[in-house]
UniProtKB/TrEMBL annotation:
Keywords: Metal-binding, Oxidoreductase, Zinc
Domain of life, per lineage: Eukaryota
Gene: DOD
PANTHER family for the chain: 4,5-DOPA DIOXYGENASE EXTRADIOL-LIKE PROTEIN
InterPro entries hit by this protein: Extradiol_dOase_DODA, Xdiol_dOase_suB
Species of provenance: Symbiodinium pilosum
Cofactors demanded by this protein: Zn(2+)
UniProt name for this protein: DOD protein
Domain Extradiol ring-cleavage dioxygenase class III enzyme subunit B: 33-168
Length: 207
């Protein structure tokens, strides 16, 4: 499943209630509690070799700035899963894709924000997986295909990020938020991209 984790810690701060509402309700739509959660996070990019969190536990990595003090004090003590990390590495290797375990990198907000809202008891093991910095669509489709067997084991595979993520426009629109023309242009471009993305991922060649 792909989910929008919102802007930094905003969903946890009550600033993006629609996103928080969706994430809190999502687990009730699942047939069973996941055996583990594999989060492919947009905030962890690596080059030719993917990385997967391989520790039995991980601290949180507050990879954002300018937010209230409380947003740097969150805790999410869910266990990691070294065994799942090894499976990820093995499945990718079978498709000639390199992946290594990183036992120390903390879970970034693309991981802990959605998992905190979806599974607040922190009782489901979590593993994070990086993206290719090339952002090559075909390469990431291949990763998804390689990891499909994990679903049969009850692993919830989550793509965490945003479909439209243009910081240049974001900061311009933030400064000119009272200008309706600027806001309308941003909405127009984001809707155009979302429409293209929906058509692409639901096309016969991919579905």
């Amino acid at each position: 499943v792909f989910i929008n984790h919102g802007g930094g810690p905003l969903p946890l701060l009550g600033k993006q209630p629609q996103i928080a509402k969706f994430l809190k309700a999502y687990p009730s739509s699942l047939p069973a509690v996941p055996t583990a959660i594999l989060v492919v996070t947009a905030h962890w990019e690596t080059r030719s070799t993917l990385k997967v969190s391989g520790g039995s536990s991980h601290s949180l990595y507050f990879d954002y700035g300018g937010f209230p003090k409380e947003s740097y004090e969150y805790q999410y003590p869910a266990p990691g899963s070294p065994d799942l990390a090894k499976q990820v590495i093995s499945l990718l290797a079978q498709r000639d894709m390199q992946c290594t375990a990183d036992p120390t990198r903390g879970w970034d907000h693309g991981v802990f924000v959605p998992t905190t809202l979806m599974f607040p008891k922190a009782d489901v093991p979590v593993v994070a997986l990086s993206l290719y910095s090339s952002q090559d669509a075909a390469a990431h489709l291949a990763v998804g295909e390689a990891l499909q067997p994990l679903r049969d084991q009850g692993v919830l595979i989550v793509g965490s990020g945003a479909s439209f993520h243009n910081f240049d426009y974001f900061f311009v629109s933030w400064k000119q938020a009272r200008d309706p023309t600027v806001r309308q242009e941003g909405v127009k471009h984001s809707k155009q991209f979302d429409r293209w993305l929906t058509e692409t991922v639901t096309s016969e060649g991919l579905s």
